[in-house]
Design brief:
Layout (H helix, E strand, L loop, with lengths): L1 H20 L17 E6 L7 H9 L10 E5 L6 H8 L2 E4 L8 H13 L6 E4 L5 E2 L3 H11 L3 E8 L6 H23 L11 E4 H7 L9 H11 L4 E11 L5 H27 L9 H9 L2 H23 L3 H29 L6 H16 L1 H10 L13
C-alpha cells in the first residue's frame, strides 16, 4: 500500500504542476455587448413567499433602473402566496407546466422558452428567491457585459441576520470557491466557476440555446464547464456584491452538499470527455481546459496517498508490536489534517469580507475544519446512494 500511496502522491504532484504550467495559456474571446441593453431577471421561486419580497425590493432599489415588467418569477401554482406578492411589485409570473422535473434548470428552461415566444432580451440575470444585492450590483455587472464578457458573476456574501457557526462555516465554502478560486482565475484570464446564482447570461447565448440546456443537480457548475469547453469569456467582479441565505440546520447542509458532490461528478462525466477531444493547437482556452480536467483530482490523490502510507506504517508498527506507535501515527495524521484545514480557514477569513460578529470568529476558526471533514461522509453518501434528488431548503425561517 505504501508504494501505491507514493504513486498517488507523485501523480497528484504531476497533475498540479501540469495545471500550474498551463495556467496562463488563455486568450479571452470577447463579444462586446450593446449599450443600454434590454435586461430580464429570472427568479425560480417555489413556495418562497417568506423571502420573495426582499429580492424584489432589492431590484427596485438598483442604481440601474430595471422595469419590473421584465422581472419574471417562476412558481408552480397560483395558490402560492408568492404570486400575490409579485403582483404588488409589478413582476410577471410564469407558471410551471411540467412539475415532475423538480430542478432549477428545468424551471429556467420553461421560463425562457415562454419568454422567447414573445420577445428577446440582451441580458438575463438569474437570482434565487432568497437573494438580495447591493444597490449598484446590476450597474456594475452590466459594465462587463458591454466590455464583452458573456457570463459574469458577483461576490456571494451571507444574508443571514445574526448567523450562527453553521451558517458561517457554510458561507466559507463559497468564499473559497468565489473568492480565492475565481480571483486567481481572473489573473490567469481563465474561466470562472459559478456557484448558485447572482450571475448574468448574454442574450445571444440564450437565443442560440432557445432555452436553458443545463438540467443537472448542479446547473451552476455545468455552466462553468460549458463556458470552458466553448471558450466563452467569463468574469468575476468582487465589488458587485449579492447576498444568499445559508442553511440553519446541519441536516439541510448534508442534503445540499450531497447534491453538490453528486452533481459535480455527474457533470464532469459528461463534459471532461468532450474536453479531451480538443487539441491544444489553436485552442484559445487551453489553460482553463487543463484546469477543468484536473479539477480536485490532485487533492483526492494527495489524501488517498497519505492515508495509504499511514495505514502501511500503522500495520508495520502493529506487526512489530508497537500498538502505541500505531496510535500515534493515527493521531498525528488527524492532527496534520486539522492543522492544514485550520490554515486554510484562516487564509479564507483574512482574504474575504464575510460579515460576522467578532465573538463568533474564534468558534468558526476552530470548528470549520470539522465541517470540512464532514464532506467525506457526505461524498460517500452522495456517490453510493442510487438516486440523489434536489431537496428544497426552507428560507426565511
Amino acid at each position: 500500500m505504501g508504494i501505491i500511496g507514493l504513486l498517488c502522491l507523485f501523480t497528484a504532484l504531476g497533475m498540479a504542476l501540469w495545471g500550474f504550467f498551463c495556467r496562463k495559456q488563455n486568450i479571452l474571446r470577447m463579444k462586446p455587448g450593446v449599450e443600454n441593453p434590454q435586461v430580464a431577471v429570472l427568479i425560480p421561486a417555489r413556495d418562497e413567499s417568506a423571502v420573495i419580497a426582499d429580492v424584489l425590493d432589492s431590484l427596485t432599489k438598483q442604481t440601474y433602473t430595471l422595469d419590473m415588467n421584465d422581472v419574471y418569477v417562476i412558481i408552480e401554482n397560483m395558490q402560492d402566496p408568492t404570486a400575490e406578492i409579485c403582483k404588488k411589485y409589478g413582476a410577471k409570473i410564469i407558471l410551471r407546466k411540467d412539475l415532475k422535473k423538480q430542478r432549477k434548470g428545468y424551471a429556467l428552461d420553461e421560463a425562457i422558452k415562454d419568454i422567447l415566444n414573445n420577445r428577446r432580451y440582451d441580458v438575463y440575470f438569474v437570482f434565487d428567491a432568497d437573494n438580495t444585492m447591493e444597490e449598484d450590483f446590476v450597474e456594475r455587472m452590466l459594465k462587463h457585459y458591454v466590455e464583452g464578457y458573456q457570463i459574469a458573476t458577483g461576490y456571494r456574501n451571507m444574508k443571514n441576520p445574526d448567523p450562527g457557526v453553521l451558517e458561517a462555516v457554510s458561507s466559507l465554502t463559497f468564499a473559497m470557491i468565489n473568492g480565492i478560486g475565481n480571483r486567481k482565475r481572473m489573473k490567469e484570464q481563465g474561466n470562472m466557476t459559478f456557484s448558485g446564482t447572482g450571475f448574468y447570461i448574454d442574450g445571444g447565448l440564450i437565443d442560440e440555446w432557445r432555452g436553458w440546456p443545463f438540467h443537472s443537480l448542479t446547473e451552476d457548475y455545468e455552466i462553468s464547464l460549458y463556458a470552458t469547453l466553448n471558450g466563452i469569456a467569463t468574469y468575476y467582479d468582487e465589488t458587485a456584491v449579492f447576498y444568499d441565505e445559508q442553511p440553519r440546520k446541519y441536516k439541510q447542509t448534508v442534503a445540499q452538499r450531497m447534491r453538490w458532490i453528486r452533481g459535480y461528478f455527474d457533470v464532469r462525466k459528461k463534459y471532461i470527455p468532450l474536453m479531451r477531444k480538443i487539441k491544444a493547437d489553436g485552442c484559445n482556452n487551453y489553460g482553463s481546459l487543463v484546469k477543468a480536467r484536473v479539477g480536485v483530482k490532485p487533492i483526492i490523490l494527495l489524501i488517498v496517498g497519505l492515508v495509504l502510507i499511514g495505514v502501511d506504517v500503522i500495520i508495520w508498527l502493529i506487526i512489530k508490536g508497537r500498538a502505541w506507535g500505531a496510535l500515534g501515527v493515527v493521531i498525528g495524521f488527524l492532527l496534520f489534517v486539522y492543522i492544514v484545514l485550520e490554515i486554510l480557514t484562516i487564509a479564507v477569513i483574512k482574504s474575504e469580507r464575510i460579515k460576522l460578529d467578532k465573538s463568533l470568529w474564534l468558534k468558526v476558526i476552530l470548528l470549520n475544519p470539522f465541517y470540512l471533514i464532514t464532506y467525506v461522509p457526505c461524498a460517500l453518501k452522495a456517490l453510493l446512494k442510487k438516486d440523489v434528488v434536489w431537496v428544497k431548503i426552507q428560507h426565511g425561517e
